[in-house]
Amino acid sequence: MPAAWKAAGLTYNRYLAIAARAVRRSLNEDKRIVAERRGEMDLRFAKWSNGKQGEVKELGAANTAAMAESASS
Q1: What is the mean pLDDT of the chain?
Q2: Measuring CA to CA, which residue among 63, 12, 71 is closest to residue 41?
């Protein structure tokens, strides 16, 4: 029997991100603000082909776009 997150079509990393966000939102105001700052992502990536760097994209925005695209398929 697969795990619930896998049966829902989530990756393990996405499952952890959702769980962490739920925990952060349940904290009291002062602790929640500090925890939300730690949860922010500022990662970027670029695809390389033939020794040339492609367009640099923000990981969070690219992940959201990919999730929306896979949901509409």
Answers
A1: 84
A2: 63
